[in-house]
Design brief:
Largest sheet: 5 strands, mixed
Oligomer: single chain
Distance between the termini: 31 Å
Shape: globular
Number of strands: 5
Strand order of the largest sheet: 1-3-2-4-5
Length: 299
């Protein structure tokens, strides 16, 4: 099998671009980045807006309207770049705003399809797990027949819905574990940004980044909250999939709990240290704090 060398001109073609189906952008774009430091180790960071770097620059900056100066500042201050520079590793960043865990899992799949062609001796895959429920019941999870599931399962207790979504996280994480374990050069690490762990019991202890990022920036303990308002937006569509009134009653109670939890999570974000102007993301100092934690406690 012919090997390839990743560089700025070729790396993007191995990963699906994002566009109208993923975001507010009307055109398809490739928001990923690669830095070659001549290392035999590759760090791959995969996640949502916190991994892409929303909030690092002052004001609203996205993947289309960013100037060359803003892009340079964002990349220089991203946690993945700080970590890889300190460890003298090559770095591939696969992050984009508002994505969910299915998208993140798909990116691990695309990466795993590429790894046999790469000459790296070690590949560290650092996955930052997103809020539960993002992009639920959309084209991204369209291979799952939710109507059939609710027809065949009782789902009349509030906790049934909590367990259902934990199980969705478990299944995706199991897919990631399987993909990464099939290449002995890959070391998998999984953490969270602005929510607590959910479904992480399927991971090995050495694969879990123990502290969520937000805990380094806030004294608030979310107490197991794994949703945000971006996830709630999609979760509400579940009601049309339910089979009977008993299911709908239990779901509505559970949904109200999720809305209340999202409000707590949103309040935490707006008041955390090193928060960006948008009150939803860490600024460059927040990225430095996360990078330092990974360097000191994980790698």
């Amino acid at each position: 099998m012919k090997k390839i060398t990743l560089d700025q001109t070729n790396f993007a073609k191995f990963f699906t671009p994002v566009g109208p189906l993923h975001s507010h952008h009307k055109e398809h774009i490739n928001p990923y980045n690669y830095i070659d430091r001549g290392s035999d180790t590759l760090l791959v960071t995969i996640g949502d807006s916190w991994t892409w770097g929303s909030g690092i620059n002052d004001g609203y900056v996205d993947a289309v309207n960013s100037t060359a100066q803003q892009t340079k500042f964002r990349l220089n201050n991203l946690y993945g770049n700080i970590i890889s520079k300190e460890k003298e590793m090559n770095w591939l960043n696969l992050g984009f705003y508002s994505v969910g865990n299915q998208w993140i899992t798909n990116k691990v799949f695309e990466l795993r399809a590429l790894t046999p062609l790469l000459n790296f001796k070690k590949i560290i895959v650092l996955v930052m797990w997103a809020s539960t429920g993002r992009w639920f019941n959309t084209w991204q999870d369209s291979m799952t027949d939710y109507r059939k599931f609710f027809r065949e399962n009782k789902m009349t207790e509030v906790n049934d819905y909590e367990n259902f979504f934990i199980e969705l996280n478990r299944k995706l994480l199991q897919d990631i574990i399987l993909l990464c374990s099939s290449d002995t050069r890959i070391k998998l690490l999984v953490g969270t940004n602005s929510v607590d762990h959910s479904g992480f019991d399927v991971l090995h202890e050495d694969q879990i980044i123990l502290s969520p990022w937000y805990q380094l920036l806030s004294s608030t303990n979310l107490g197991g909250i794994s949703v945000d308002f971006e996830g709630v937006k999609y979760l509400q569509s579940m009601e049309i999939l339910l089979h009977n009134s008993d299911q709908r009653m239990a779901f509505q109670k559970w949904m109200q709990e999720k809305i209340d939890q999202a409000e707590i999570q949103n309040e935490m974000l707006s008041n955390m240290q090193h928060v960006a102007q948008d009150k939803s993301h860490p600024d460059h100092q927040g990225h430095k704090k996360w990078a330092d934690y990974i360097l000191q406690e994980v790698l």
